[in-house]
Amino acid sequence: MTLCRTLSVAELDAIASIVEMREIAVGKELFRESDPGDGLFLVVAGEVEVIKRGPRGDYSLARLGPGEVLGEMSLITTDARSATGRTSVDSRVLHLPGKPFRALLDVGSIAALKMVAAIAEVLAHRVATMNTLALDLADKTDPAGQKLPVLKDSELIALHRAMQVWSF
Length: 168
What we know:
Elements: H1 9-16, E1 20-24, E2 29-31, E3 39-45, E4 48-54, E5 57-64, E6 69-70, E7 84-87, E8 91-97, H2 98-106, H3 110-138, H4 153-164
Antiparallel strand pairs: 1-8, 2-7, 3-6, 3-8, 4-5, 4-7
Helix pairs in contact: 2-3, 3-4
């Protein structure tokens, strides 16, 4: 997993000692939007759909397969989940629970600190991507070259701020 790429074997063992394997049947939720964050999930086999409730129903934000991670911010904070993670097929995931991970941080675990640094890197890339997307929305034009009224400046600012705190 990308978040563990800089860990030594001993450091990886420290993280592995608190990881739980879970088998999740098709259509079951790993977590629900607005629930407190309780840890990170790594998809080992299968597929997890990330779903966000909206005023007109549910929206699929992402489909994550083997090797992909979701919920990494829950290793650092117990803030409410911003979306729901639901399996699309029978799936196997590793769950790295937040509370034991934060306990590793509290005692200065190098493994946990390296993972936090990797999370920061992931989030920095996401913010950069979201900045580009927000600007692309602001500059949308129709085929005749007329600027489309996609979002008002105040809406773009709100979107930008929201994207900076985006996590599952």
